[in-house]
Amino acid sequence: MPVVRVDNLTFRYNGIDVLSNISFAVEKGLYLGIVGPNGSGKSTLIKNILGILRPEKGRVELFGRPLSDFRQWERIGYLPQRLSALNTHFPGTVEEIIQMGLSKKDQDTLTRTLKMMAIAHLGSRLIGELSYGEQQRAMLARALIRRPELLIFDEPTTALDPETREMFYSLTGEMNRQEGTTVILVTHDIGVIGEYARNLLYLDKKVIFSGTFKEFCSSRDMAGIFGPSSQHIICHQHDRTGGTI
Ligand code: ADP
Question: Measured between alpha carbons, how far is 51 from 60 in angstroms, rounded to an integer?
């Protein structure tokens, strides 16, 4: 049973197709990169998967259940593109916000997570008083401390400062490898994603490519779309996933 299944999904803004007939499945333990140019519908797809937007046609299943029946949101950690989507003016401390809604509050785990994010010294500060980079780290800690089975990150490379970004990539990679956490990472930067994701969905209003990085690299169609030299650069520059490409 896939963690996410998208079946023949079409979404429109003002009568114009932004996503057309999108179908793919994300199996448990996958690290999927969703890439595509700006405006290709990546954020719209994520919002359809999370039920923030409703498709015109098609369906989404999460953990084997239709989206309309799905209630176990604690299984999913989502970090949106912009923090403004989260209320950073909420009058709570960093620790309170990170632990909000957790049924089991574990001081050791909290301390470890704060340390990991290099915000151990900020635990009792109000979230609204922190710098943007510090707020990003706090929201990342909030997503990770829940140990979700599925992590969805929308374009973190633009939302995160460079240091946090590196930390973020290594942490999500570790969670994926060691705990089998399924990760969906959205970015417009195909070069970056090649370093981390084993699977790739290339979107441009429709699915241009869906498969493993290895398949992407040996695909003649993709060489046709990207040009053989770009494909070569993308495929040979990066290999931190442990596989041979
Ligand atoms: P990406 O995440 O790949 O950059 P988006 O999903 O944000 O792309 O946007 C896909 C398309 O939908 C773009 O053409 C964008 O202009 C359009 N779009 C996004 N949000 C809205 C909106 N709220 N109303 C109308 N069009 C929108």
Answer: 9
